[in-house]
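Hey,
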Amino acid sequence: MLVVIVQDTVWLSYKMKELFLPLTKEDIDNLKMGELAYLSGTIYSARDNTHSKLIELINKAELLPFTLSGAAIYYMGPTPAREGVVCGSAGPTTSSRMDRYTPALLEKGLKVMIGKGNRSAEVKQSIKDNHAIYFSTIGGAGAYLADKIKRMKCVAFPELGPEAIYQLEVEMFPVIVSYK
């Protein structure tokens, strides 16, 4: 439940939807633009360099490090974790930097993208054509978002450091429906 209280007055009360990944067609259909939700399940982190490598693999018809069909990608590169925590700061990066790669990934089955900022007209159309969804999350709240990551393991391109692909198990990860 999200409640905003100003001077002892409730201004907004809204029950956030809980969604479990991978999302189904019905899950996506039932979401509305601007709606708030929590995601739980598997997400893969990927940034600019990783997207470039994924496209190279697709162009060479090589196996990808994870199945794109139904997958969720979070545009994020984690900072190193301090002792006792799973992940360092895990705030979103600007999504438009991935726009040149996104239509090809959507055509291969990617369903969920999480980041911050606007998307190009081409990506918005590709999201619609491929029945996918783009969620925004909270910029500037990397420590809060990292707390929602319960497990993290590198699954590809470890040489890229924070830009490697990490498989993230998240619980109650907050998002806003931005495009679908």
